[in-house]
Amino acid sequence: MALNRLPHRVVLYAIVAALLAGCASKDKLATGALPDDYRTRHPIVLTEGERTIDIPIASGDTRLTQGTRDVIRGFAAEYRNASSSVIQIMLPRGSVNGHAAQIVRKDIRRLLAASGVSPKKMIETTYDASVTGDAAPIRLSYVAITAQTAPCGAWPEDLALNTLENRNYYNFGCATQSNLAAQIANPTDLVGPRQMSPIDAEQRGQVIDSWRGTDKGDGGTTIVFN
In whole angstroms, what is the distance from residue 77 CA to residue 33 CA? Predict the structure, then answer.
């Protein structure tokens, strides 16, 4: 009878040992595997990038509209802050509005010069717009240092295989990093802090008075509210 019960006990011990080993493996995965840092996987880097705007031109236009002038002024302000390269004025070639573009380009050059862009920094080029057959825009562009990340949307691994390892999937955090890079006004701020501006003594005095809560009466006496 003792010999017949021995195999059942051996099988029972084997099942218990397997269950304990499985629990130990799960605990090890849950506590030992840390999520990856998305900032390392999708770093924000400084690289050379092209910034462009398209100026719509109708076939009968002879000058820029007020709204278009405001857009070009804003583009010129960004150029002065971000770059010292040239601005390309790309004119459509072979489009129905080609003649109007040749007229308006002079208005664009005058507006850029009035906005602080040196005429020596403007170059004119053309691009083929005969394929579309429609009114093509005048494109303004310049090259500047830009903060950006690699393109998002990469899924090199099966998400179902990473669940037990407690790791972030590869594309996790990419959109956040890309949005943060797009919001940086001055990419060189990522390199180091800027120099502090001089102290405004008058503004400092007003701030101190406001913080103290001071008020002078008719007799010139300073009343302090604690």
Answer: 49
